[in-house]
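Weekly modeling sync, notes
Attendees: AB, CL, MP (scribe)

Item 1: holo prediction request
CL wants a bound-state model with FE3-S4 cluster before deciding which constructs to order. AB pointed out that an apo prediction alone won't tell us much about the pocket. Agreed to run with the ligand included and paste results into these notes for async review.

Input as submitted:
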Amino acid sequence: MSKTFDIGISALAGPGEFAQANVDSAPPLSNGKSFFIETFGCQMNVHDAEKVAGVFLARGYRAAQSIAEADVMLYNTCSIREKAAQKVFSRLGAWRGIADGKIIGVIGCLAQQEGEDIFERAPWVSLVCGSASYRKLPQMVAELEAGGRRLMGLDLDTDETFETEITRRDNPLRAYVTIIEGCDYSCSYCVVPHTRGPERSRPSDAVLSEARRLADAGYTEIQLLGQTVNSYRDPSARTLSFVELLREVASVAGIRRVRFTTSHPNDFHREIVDAIDATPVLCDHIHLPVQSGSTRVLGAMRRTYTREEYLEKIAWIRAARRLISVTTDIIVGFPGETENDFEQSVTLLDAVGYDGVYAFTYSPRPNTTASTMPDAIPEEEKYRRLAVLQDRQRQIQIERNNKLVGSAFELLVDTHHSARGQWAGRSTSNLIVNFTSPLQNLLGEYVQARVTRAAPFSLVGEQVI
Ligand code: SAH
Ligand code: SF4
Ligand code: F3S
């Protein structure tokens, strides 16, 4: 598995390979103008862009093929680490030259974080809007059309979710569905509660009717989204729990795979494992970010669980009848992380036997309590720890993947590597298998493939016919 943060969106087929991307319902007549959205960050940001695109489509805009030809250019930003944030201003600088006569907007997490300052640093920007204010976008777009400039949507204090009439689905095979927005935790290193606002769940009926519409449109795979997806609490009279919602989405006719991300260990209960065990449509993969293997560091991170409590949850997963794959996120070099603390993150890799790890060097962020903690770890030391951790995980994945040689998986085919004569698809456990087949036109099909060769980050196989 690669170490990028764009989990799950890297293995898509090129746009030309499928029929047109899905739009929920027919957009109105064109207003002759076009928009382009450039997106960074997590799946929530990717899906927000699909909904924001829907707002523009509903007003008669069409999607431009490139930034250069667009009348409205939006930059959907991430601020989880310093590097992601730095990129934004250099990119906005590059847009300056083509800004004439266009509307430029900065949306997403860095927009929320930097607010009005963006207008000072990049006066060619007309709109700054954080995700908690997207429900006001239709009105803001109308104001921009009427000549409005320097519009801001930065209200974080909300209990509303962002509902759209139209969503433009960029992934033709896997549809994202938001079930919960924001975050009520307060991990000491993290900007998300400051950029996305308080936790608010969507009514279960809205989620289920979206799932049914997706099934009617031909989708067979749904990924439920939330920063703490398993903290879901149905605000409607039905008061479904997360597990009840999972079961109901999984029973929508036509849906063959349901995934969910990201689970917080504190809200991870045995019932989730029981539901996966009993419901084949629920995918046998859990992304359960641990952040550190040291209970002391977990305390300083305010993660609300100990190493032992986390391992207890892993034991429930390992006791399941289905083989459930587990992936995680780890931060190395948190302030005050000793060599011994770090060692405990490395030994945790062995104790769990992860199928994939997204590891990051700690990056101090504005408005977070960790940013003022003493005992910062020098950058080179953070990178050394990152390399050690990644190296250990690589060994673990070699061993785990070698054991898969000879096994067959059902794959949903999402990529055609025509130059290599290979197809690629994902198993329910989120493994990517590159495989050969004597057949044609496999994109979007479910096939069986047997693994013939394993590498640490990829599997090679052939279709079983
Ligand atoms: N809500 C999820 C994580 C969201 S952010 C959870 O609670 O697990 C995605 C990942 O980015 C986190 O899991 C963490 O590993 C990483 N991350 C967040 N803030 C960071 C920071 N300041 N420096 C380095 N990595 C960070
Ligand atoms: Fe950030 Fe923690 Fe919330 Fe995850 S749970 S989004 S890491 S504050
Ligand atoms: Fe980045 Fe915001 Fe997602 S900071 S990781 S885009 S929640």
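Recorded for review: Residues 5-153 form a domain with the Rossmann fold fold (CATH 3.40.50.12160).
Action items: CL to compare against the apo run; MP to circulate these notes.
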